[in-house]
Amino acid sequence: MNLSHIPLRLVTGAFILNSGLAKRNLDKESAAGLQAMGSRVIPQISALEPERFGKLLSYAETALGLSLLLPFVPSRLAGAGLAAFSGSLFTMYLKTPGFTLDDGIRPSPQGTGFAKDIWMLGIAVALILDPKRKTMKRT
């Protein structure tokens, strides 16, 4: 892991880990609401029981948060997981009625809380695209 990755991974990993841990004991209604939003991106999600979906979401977010925080997980791998997660969130934002203004991109007041998650996609791209360090050969 590059030194420059530490702040990116620490902030994002802690944020996602906290979110995942907070979802451990979602009630059925809350899980169903998240499931309905998620099914706009992945329709197969709607086939799950809401409680099961809530548990799986909690496990996935916790695992992603930990992968970002653990230094032995390669940055590109952690970045790929973050890209999938944040890309899904951004797609959900774009597909949710009322979250964008008429132009379909800029957030409405209701969508601002979700639009700001685009920062995670930027961090994911930075982790994936950052070149590997090359070791110098000694002669």
Can you put this structure into words, describing what you see?
- The chain has helices at residues 5-22, 28-38, 50-69, 75-95, 112-115, 118-129.
- It is built from 6 helices and no strands.
- The model has no long low-confidence stretch (mean pLDDT 90).
- The protein has 139 residues and is mostly helical.
- It has one domain.
- Helix 1 packs antiparallel against helix 3.
Tally of DSSP β-strands: 0
Our count of helices gives: 6
Strand-pairing-aware structural class: mainly alpha
Major beta sheet summary: none
Name the poorly predicted regions: none
> How large is the radius of gyration?
17 Å
User: What is the molecular shape?
Assistant: globular
Overall residue-averaged pLDDT value: 90
What is the first-to-last residue Cα distance? 26 Å
Number of domains: 1
The run of helices and strands is HHHHHH
